[in-house]
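Q: A small favour: would you put together sequence and structure tokens for a protein?
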Amino acid sequence: EVQLVESGGDLVQPGGSLRLSCAVSGFTVSSSAVGWVRQALGKGLEWVSRMNGGGSIKYEAFVEGRFTVSRDNAKNTLYLQMNSLKAEDTAVYYCAQIEGGYWGKGTLVTVSS
């Protein structure tokens, strides 16, 4: 069974940092295309970043160098390091396996003073 379990979401002040984790079972992250997607309240899904099995990464323009995707192959875990967070980054963040369309249940990031 494929499972993706996100964690690490929290309340953080503008300018702060968070690291999100995505624990994966049922497939190997190093041989799959995976990514992070977010959804703000009342808005649609928005891609954050994507990584293929070879480690090639693409970020959406709004990231502006603030976010970094990484993976720990031994732990079969995907990460999203987020720095210099803005209020507009507030959203539920999901990790996904792109080829199969598998999604986790998300973790909430709230950026507020």
